[in-house]
Amino acid sequence: MRFPLLAAVSAVALFAAQTPVLALSQDAPAPAAEAVSDADLAAFAAAMTAVRSVMAGVQGGQPTTEQQAAMASAITDAGLTIDQFNSLSTRISADAVLQARVAVAAAPDSPAGSVAAGVTDAELGMFAPAYARVREIAMAAGGAPSTEQQAEMVAVIQGSGLSVERFNEISTALSADQKLQARVALAEAQG
User: Fold this and answer.
1) 14-47 burial, b for 16+ CB within 10 Å, e for fewer?
2) 24-28: long-range contacts (C-beta < 8 A, 24 or more apart)?
3) CB-based contact 63:73 (threshold 8 Å)
4) What does the pLDDT look like over 51-96, one tens digit per residue?
5) Which of 179, 178, 12 has the alpha carbon at shortest distance from 90?
6) d(Cα 87, Cα 93) in Å, to the nearest integer?
7) Which has the least CB within 10 A, 77, 92, 171, 187?
8) In Å, what is the CA distance from 122 to each residue of 19, 137, 155?
9) pLDDT tens across 135-172, in order?
10) Which helix (H) or strand (E) segment is 10 a member of?
11) Contact at 8 Å (CB) between 21 and 93?
C-alpha cells in the first residue's frame, strides 16, 4: 500500500532542532484540544526515530514505495495510526512544551542511583530558572565572573530554594545526562 506524501517531507522544529516530519496521509485530522498522554508521546518518539532512520536513506527528495511502507510500518509498530502520528506531529511542531516532552520520552533513562536519576520535578522547577539566570550572568561576564557576578550567581541559586551544593551537583550531572538535559528543557518550556 502506498501512502501519498504531503509536500514530500516538511521540516518542523522538533526537539529544539530541525527534524523531518512526514505527512503520510492527505486526510490528517486537525489538532485536537485534548491533552496528550506520556504514552502517546513515547510512541511518537519511537516512531519518529524509526521514520528518521528510513528518511536517512531517501535519495532525490521523494521516498520510494518501499520506504513509505517502512515508515508506515514503523508508525503502526509504535502503536499509532498514520492519522494519530500526523496529528501529533502537527501539535508537537506548534507547541514547545510538547516538543520538550517528546525529547524527555526519547532520551535514554538516567543511570539508576545517579545524581541525574535522583533529581525531583520540584528540584527541576527550582533549578531551571536559576540555571538560566546563572548562564546569563556567566555570559555577561565573558571570562571569569567578577566577585560581584559570583555573588549575584550565589544569590540567584539560594533564592531558587536550592543549596549551592545541590545546584552544582545537578549542574555537573546535566552535562553528561541526556534525560536530565531534556527534563531541564521541559521545566524551562513550562516555566
Assistant:
1) bbeeebbbbbbbeebeebeeeebeeebbbbbbbb
2) 24/68, 24/71, 24/72, 24/75, 24/82, 24/85, 24/86, 25/82, 25/83, 25/86, 27/83, 28/82, 28/83, 28/86, 28/87, 28/90
3) no
4) 999 988 888 778 889 999 999 999 999 999 999 999 999 999 999 9
5) 12
6) 10
7) 77
8) 30, 24, 19
9) 999 898 887 889 999 999 999 999 999 999 999 999 99
10) strand 9-14
11) yes
Show the cell assigned to 51. 521514520
Q: Is 97 helix (H, G, I), strand (E, B) or coil?
A: helix
**H or E element at residue 189:** helix 178-190
Q: Which amino acid is at 60?
A: G
Cα atoms in the 13 Å half-sphere on the side-chain side of 36: 25
| C-alpha cell at position 32 | 485536537
